[in-house]
């Protein structure tokens, strides 16, 4: 994937069982120069299909661990695949749409807090 001359990649990882293995693989593959563009790997730190809300500390820890393998200036955070709970489809098991929206908003809030916490730990 990182052989493409693309600047950034959004990678589903919050639901991955062996995250550290994938962080290492990303760190080995992400390129400083992809035809003049530095590649950035945005790793999934929030699973939108699971109603359990990740804590800011969990998100911080995931990013700090990822930074052991992925250069900090090439590391970003994202959600695993968007928040379909905003619509009334049957995929996520969040219950009613109002509850799904509350869960999604808390997950996004915690992602922002966790990224800030990771930035402080990593000095960026």
TrEMBL record:
Q: Where in this chain does the record put each Cobalamin-independent methionine synthase MetE C-terminal/archaeal domain?
A: 34-83
Q: Which domain of life is it from?
A: Eukaryota
Coiled-coil residue spans: none
Which InterPro entries does the record associate with it? Met_Synth_C/arc, UROD/MetE-like_sf
Q: What is this protein called?
A: Cobalamin-independent methionine synthase MetE C-terminal/archaeal domain-containing protein
